[in-house]
Amino acid sequence: MNFSHYGYGETLPASATDAINASVSTAINERKYWRMLEEDGWEVVEQSTKDIPISERLREELYYRKTLEYMGFLIINRRYEEATRLSKQHPQWQNCEHIHWLWQSLLNEVSTGYGPNSQRRYDELLETCPAHALTTTKKMLSWINRSAIEDILVRYGASRYVDEFALAAFKEDYLLSSLEQPKPTLKTLQEIGRITTKRQSGQLAEALGWKYLDIQRPDLAIFWFESAIEWAGETELRVRGILYSLSVQAKRTLQHYEKKFPELKLSTREYNDQVCRQPPLAATCLVLLNSLSRALSPELASLRAWKLYELKRVFSAMLAFEEVLAEIPLNHRRWEITQYGYVLTLIQAGFHQKALVQAEFIQNSQNREALNKRWMAEAIYQYYHQAQYSQALLLLDQHDSQYGLDIALLEIKAWSLHHTNKTIAAKEIFHQLTTIFPFDENITVAHELLKCLSSGTKENC
Questions:
Q1: How many other CB atoms are found less than 10 A from the CB of residue 308?
Q2: What CA–CA distance (Å, rounded) separates 152 from 119?
Q3: How far is CA 215 from CA 208, 256, 348, 422, in A?
């Protein structure tokens, strides 16, 4: 499951940094342990100090961070009542100095629904911890469903500590998120167009092109595909978008005149199985399916939904899968594969709870195993982004044991090893990656960063 919206990773409150310059242990200088706590995590410090006396302040900080991590574990596993009890057991952390604890308590409340309790907690945090008001709002926007975004923005806008520039950006982003909806209104698309022109974003312009095609406005679609090329360069999909828009216009023109000029009668294009069997030709296949003059059979309608998914047009794919599933019975031979595609699309769109429910209807063991693999990978990414590197490594080992080595997860494993003070093993993995992908600039840069961080001159990295 995709847990990226749980949001850890920020530097923890000033207590750790302040302690470096404050009085330290009764027996030893604890400066290096506080620094280690920031860089390597509480587990490394706990292991390093298990046989030596440490100050009460350091002991309390270790307990706080351990409990904070456990709170995150409870929330991820939807054990919300336990998380609520844990929060109430530690009133000493209900303050802005322990803002991560307050955020976790807020997340736990929001995870069960955006109701009066969630709204009250959010309002309280805005007023009592003004230094964190903007970050708190960013987290809320990443946690809640789209239906609650407007209320969050109204509450933040009414706060005494609102950042007007950030609020304007939030409102723009909310408007742009309408592109993810199956059928945004023409007015919404026009407003998004103004933002897109201001930003000169090729990616947004391309998305607008496809949306205008969805609402049968090929003339405007051509404008936005051409704008995308002007601002961000040519890509196959953008050029195909123009060609498809032109073909739609041509088809309409021919349909308008074919009675008056029968010799111009539009020929019916036939489905080409060979084109649609080749994954690199997903866009060509989609154009072909959309251009068929006859109604699509359940088989071809399902194929069309899969091609939308392959092209990462997630919300269009989700709608297409839903339309097919509404038309075919459970015993139809294409029902299972269509349901499987629907679940994958829900995961990609971020609807994880709905995906879990829909996955229960899948009977094919290979499809179920593929979904389990996908969810395990999502959990690994989540643990990593929460800085729970030991948990990430445990799941990575389990993943390798069950499914074999996954190249896509190797970089996560390398950085998790680095953060758990296993730098030699991390370097070995990056050496493998640079050997496999010698021309991948991102991997090369990451490898150089790792070498720099482990060299002892971190300030220059």
A1: 24
A2: 8
A3: 11, 19, 23, 54
Write down the H helix ranges in 311-422. Answer: 314-327, 335-349, 352-359, 365-385, 389-403, 407-419
Tell me how many domains the chain contains.
4
Does 452 score more than 80 pLDDT? no
* Same structural domain, 104 and 174: no
Q: What percent of the chain has pLDDT over 90?
A: 29
Q: Show Cβ contacts of residue 13 under 8 Å, excluding neighbours closer than 6 positions.
A: 96, 97, 98, 99, 100
Containing structural domain, residue 353: 294-362
CA distance 87 to 104: 9
**Quick one: 42 and 149 in the same domain?**
yes
Helix axes 116-128, 133-143, angle to 10 degrees: 160
Q: Are 416 and 450 in contact (CB under 8 A)?
A: no
Instruction: Indicate whether 274 belongs to any domain.
Output: no
Q: 97 and 65 in contact (C-beta within 8 Å)? A: no
- Interatomic CA distance for residues 155 and 219, integer angstroms: 40
What SS3 class is residue 271? coil
How far is residue 119's CA from residue 108's CA, in Å, rounded to a whole number?
13
**Single pTM value for the model:** 0.49
Nearest partner of 108 among 82, 145, 80, judged by Cα: 80
- Reduced to 3 states (helix: H, G, I; strand: E, B; else coil), residue 184 is coil
- The tokens describing 310, both together, are 């392959």
Token pair 């009414």 in the structure block, residue: 158
Q: Please report where in the chains the tokens 């940094």 appear, as a residue.
A: 17
